[in-house]
Design brief:
The structure is a single chain. This protein is an all-alpha fold. It contains 12 helices and no strands.
Length: 254
């Protein structure tokens, strides 16, 4: 608790400076709404349900895309990590696809799916796939070879070897990819909404900016920042409770 109190000092100071800036006529900018106006706009958005609706739409696409990426990335990653020869064949294809910016897929996804959640989920899933896939491959390849020898000696089938040996041994590394993908999912989901998709928090920010409702725009922007922090904190708390997961000291104190 003390860490959060100390961490709030700088944001609180910045908000006070922001509020004071607005009262200096020579420095006042109409596009820089007062924090008090931003708070009122946020409360109004909560009252009429627009903030809740937009938040649900953004998180729906972000989490659906993340789940899709995790299922594909972990399944393929475990398979490639256990089959080095196949991984060497597939690696050039992965290296060719991975540098493609996820936003570059927006026109193609829009052409296939049209506006809506499916288009957004597709772009998010593509962006989240690579950290999950690559870190899963690396984690599985880093498993102590003697553990795999034990699984062969016990004559475990593929499913038993994966669930009893591979996943417990590689899980600590795999959750790092999961946390990276989680942050990417929110960023890409909002980016798609800002660029083209008429739904979610990104679209609400752009609509407020175009209507010159800067208080609403800042309210959504600050809410997005809080959501990112909250998701990161909750994911870390959940991961730390998983049995067998060991996070580094830096990761654990984030």
């Amino acid at each position: 608790m003390k860490r959060y109190v100390l961490g709030a000092i700088i944001p609180a100071a910045l908000l006070l400076a922001w509020e004071g800036w607005w009262y200096v006529d020579a420095w006042r900018l109409e596009s820089l709404s007062r924090p008090t106006d931003v708070v009122r706009a946020f409360v109004s958005g909560l009252g009429d349900g627009s903030v809740v609706r937009a938040t649900f739409q953004t998180l729906e696409a972000a989490l659906a895309g993340l789940l899709t990426a995790c299922v594909i990335g972990m399944t393929v990653g475990i398979g490639l990590g256990l089959a080095p020869k196949v991984e060497r064949i597939v690696a050039p294809t992965i290296d060719a696809l991975r540098p493609i910016p996820s936003v570059a897929l927006i026109p193609l996804s829009l052409m296939i799916f049209g506006f809506g959640a499916t288009m957004q989920v597709t772009v998010v899933a593509f962006a989240c796939l690579w950290p999950v896939l690559l870190i899963t491959i690396s984690s599985v390849k880093g498993i102590e070879p003697r553990l795999l020898e034990v699984s062969r000696a016990l004559q475990l089938n593929a499913w038993q070897r994966t669930t009893k040996i591979v996943l417990p041994a590689a899980l600590s590394g795999m959750v790092v990819g999961l946390r990276l993908a989680l942050a990417i999912a929110l960023i890409v989901s909002i980016t798609v909404e800002i660029v083209i998709n008429p739904r979610g928090l990104g679209h609400e920010m752009m609509s407020a900016q175009q209507a010159l409702r800067f208080d609403q725009m800042y309210a959504h922007l600050l809410w997005v920042g809080f959501l990112g922090w909250a998701i990161s904190a909750l994911s870390l708390a959940g991961i730390q409770r998983l049995p067998g997961v060991r996070l580094g000291s830096t990761e654990g104190n984030t």
